[in-house]
Amino acid sequence: MAGLLKWLVWAMGAACVAIGVFHFALGIDSVPGEGAAGATVDSRERFYGAVFLGYGLAWIWAARQSPVPSAAVRWLAGIFLLGGVGRLLSMAFHGPPQGFQSVLTALELALPPVYFWLSAADERAVAARTPQRRTGPAGAGRRECDGTP
What we know:
The chain has helices spanning 2-26, 39-64, 70-94, 99-118, 121-129.
């Protein structure tokens, strides 16, 4: 499970970096049907591309940690899930988007539960490999404070 988590975190990071670079570089030309949207939408698209690139770098940072930090994975997956919820709200208010956007929505709703489930796998694997320090019976080696030097 720990290997799967590390692989999925790396894959998510690499995909988000690639998507971020794509949107940053191409602006509105990176979005099907947005070619005539104009400078304002192009500016927004490039800004969001840079933010998504940074989001991908955060995933890669998490993948490079040992163990992969479960809290970071849960936060990043939660943000991804929130993006999927945003797409659902858009569908509710404006109807279905272009087909590829619907596929992305499905991924944004399906992947976060997998990350939540696996989030602590690497930490558990490291803990299982690390020998536990024996400290003896409870209270052994502890000095009582009775006021004497």
